[in-house]
Amino acid sequence: MHELIILGSGCAGNTAAVYAARANLKPIVVSGHEPGGQLSLTSLVENFPGFPEGIQGPDLVENIKKQAQNFGAEYLHGTVDEVDLSKRPFRIRIDGEWRETKALIIATGASAKWLNLPNEQKLIGHGVSSCATCDGFFYRGRKIMVIGGGDTAMEEASFLTRFGETVTLVHRRDEFRASKIMLDRVRHNPKVRILTSTVVEDVHDVNQNLVTSVRLKNLRTGEVWDEAVDGFFVAIGHQPNTAPFRGQIELDEDGYIVSKGGARTSVAGVFHAGDVQDRVYKQAVTAAGAGCMAALEAEKFLEAEAHTHAA
Length: 311
Ligand code: NDP
Known about the structure:
311 residues, binds NADPH dihydro-nicotinamide-adenine-dinucleotide phosphate, FAD/NAD(P)-binding domain, 2 domains, 7-stranded mixed beta sheet, 5-stranded parallel beta sheet, elongated, alpha/beta
């Protein structure tokens, strides 16, 4: 029986582990299918306080993990496939093995969304990507396409102009969700070409195991055409990793955890931290802050439980 299990090893989960380990809760951190979370997919982080020259995302998250391990946090490689939060102790199944815990912090983050094109998944890693900072380098002097109309798409398109010969931004509507400043930056970049009211029908060529072209459709004219592309970046937002918790704690219509104030969820003893609940800020520093809050609340909860049982 564990005192505290933390699900997720991104900025939120690792920071929760630092606080919980220092409080002697001997937390078990389950690293999940994307160890290190979104930070492990970024390059230079320039806005995490305390690093005037910036710090590489993977270094930042690894440093927090080491810090947690120094205080006794234990890391488990694995993914949660089922939970039972209907009674205490909570039961968590990690890669088929059930564990029991008195308290739980969910810091499973949010993953990139895909377009669900017929060939998209087959070409991931072969020209299809959801992470410009991870894969942009491979498309030096090549033709790049970015899909989306939000800030993520703008950020990725701007970043990719460092590498690509051209960057074509494709958005399904005429209006953009992105903030004006980020949209203007893209609009004024001579390397970027913008196609609006345009959707992607598929990406090719599976036979060559390589992205060579993309089939597009203009929604206003109905025109369908193929465009030569080397790097295809999907930047249409993220989806919270909450599938195992469906029906067990309250989630909103998009699957994000509904906060009940502080780090509390609808189940006493289960706390949230980071992007799994945050659809607004999604920053490393806010995730770290949320991890701290969740650990402090878990500590308080466990203390109160211990008093109740002792009384
Ligand atoms: P958003 O939800 O803001 O935007 C997603 C975009 O993808 C929309 O334009 C949407 O189109 C489009 N889209 C969604 N699904 C599909 C689909 N199936 N096919 C085609 N297009 C699709 O997500 P973001 O990740 O861009 O941003 C999330 C939050 O993070 C925002 O609050 C944003 O401001 C913030 N952010 C801030 C940054 C910064 O300030 N540096 C950087 C990145 C994000 P439609 O508009 O038609 O719905």
